Amino acid sequence: MKRLVPLLLAVSLLAPAPAQAAPRHVRLDGVDVRLRDGTTQVVTVNHTTGYRARVTWWVLRDGRWQQQLQAADGRIGYGGLVVGRKRHQGTGTTPLGSYDLLSAFGMHRQDPKWDLAYRKVRRGDYWVQDNGSRYYNRYRNKSQGGFRWRLPASDPNSSERLLDYRSQYEWSIVTSFNRGQVRHRGAGIFLHVNGSGATAGCVSAPRRFIRALMFRLDPDQRPVIAIGR
Asked: What are the tens digits of pLDDT across the range 99-146?
C-alpha cells in the first residue's frame, strides 16, 4: 500500500483543478445583483432621490461587466422602495431585489429583431390584479373570463386595462416579481416608458432607453433587473 502513495499523489497533481462556480452576486452601480445561471445581461435601478432613479444596462463581455446604456431620469413607485416579500398591493411601492425579465407587450406590432416573447395589446386586454382570480398577476383578455374586469378602478381588486396606458406601455417588459401569485403582494411590476411622474410600483425609463432594450434583451442570456438604493 505504501508504494501506491507516490503514484496517487502524482495523479492528483496532474488532474485539472475543478472549475470554479460563477459568482452568484455582483455589484453594479452600487446595486447588488443576484445573478441567474448564465446571466450576461443586467438592468440596474439605483434610487437617487424621491421617485427618481438611475437605470443602467450592462452586458458581460470577456469576463467583465460593461455599461452599455444609462438613463438618469428613471422612475420608481410613489410609495418608495420595499423588500419584495413585504410588499403589499396598492401601496405604490417598488420591490427591492433581482428579478428575471421574462417577456414584453406593447402598442406596436412585433419587430422581427426582438427576441423576447411579445404580445401586441388589443382591445379587452388586462393585467389581472383581482386577488380572487386564478389568473392573478397574469395577462388576460376579458373575453376569456376568470377575473372581475368590470370592477371600478377604486376597487382594490380592479385589474389594469392595458390600453389605458398607451404612452407608458408603448413597450413594457414583464418582470418575474410575484410570479408565484402570492395574493395581495402585488401584480404587474414592469419596466416601461416614463409617464408624467412616479409609477404605481413599476420601474420606468425614458422612451429611447426602453426602445433600445427591446432590441437588446435576449432570453438566452437570462436577463435580470436589479432594484436597489
From this structure: 999 999 999 999 999 999 999 999 999 999 999 999 999 999 999 999
Residue pair 67/54 in contact (Cβ under 8 Å)? The answer is: no
Label each residue of the chain as H, E or C: CCCHHHHHHHHHHHCCCCCCCCCCEEEECCEEEECCCCCCEEEEEEEEECCEEEEEEEEEECCEEEEEEEEEEEECECCCEEEHHHCCCCCCCEEEEEEEEEEEEECCCCCCCCCCCEEECCCCEEECCCCCCCCCCCEEEHHHCCCCCCCCCCCCCCCEEHHHHCCCCCEEEEECCCCCCCCCCCCCCEEEECCCCCECCCEEECHHHHHHHHHHCCHHHCCEEEEEC
Q: At 216, phi and psi to the nearest 5?
A: -110, -30
Residue given cell 377604486 in the structure block: 154
Confidence at 22, pLDDT banded by 50, 70, 90: low
Q: Is the confidence at residue 150, as pLDDT, over 70? A: yes
Q: Would the pTM of this model clear 0.85, i.e. be above it?
A: yes
